[in-house]
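Input/output pair, single chain:
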Amino acid sequence: MSTEPVRGPNADPRPLTDEPLPLDLVNTVWIDEGVRHDLLKRPGGLTTWLATAGFADTVPSSQETLDALLVTRTALCALLDERAEPKEAINDLNETLRHGRILRVLSTEGPEAVIDTDAPSWLPAWSAAETYLQLLEENPDRIRKCANPECVLHFYDVSKNGGRRWCSMAGCGNRAKTRRHYTRHRKAAPSGEQ
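Output:
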């Protein structure tokens, strides 16, 4: 069973969207029926991601934007991987963060915070890195990898009790329940009926 939603030709094909920006960037890579997909390496994938992430009107779909996102995504993936050595990933994420800053300014409406990046192409990558720091400050234990060992997707658990385990109950959660049901009934069946 495919987890890829059926939608229009320019729609985002990923099975999990609407996560906080750094996790949404990490989730541009997913596995469906054993096949690895990478939205950012598909034709038009960068444009699709920029649109779904809210950057379509402010950031060019350029090689510079793609390069910044790929470096940042690699750093975020390494930081989320509990088995990885984080030192290089920390350096890479800090390098992304050096390309932008939040400026406090006074406007006619009052105080504002304005994001300033070296170039528009750095805005999405910098925003993902900055939002990752915010998630770490707020509740790092809510940043999770899907409990399905074959799934590479991550999510931010906003459930009331913090008990979310799956990227999607309709996808990975349902498959796990089906496996448990099959295993339970197979064990319960007499040996001649299997």
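Confidence is low (pLDDT under 50) at residues 1-6. The first strand starts at residue 29 and ends at 32.
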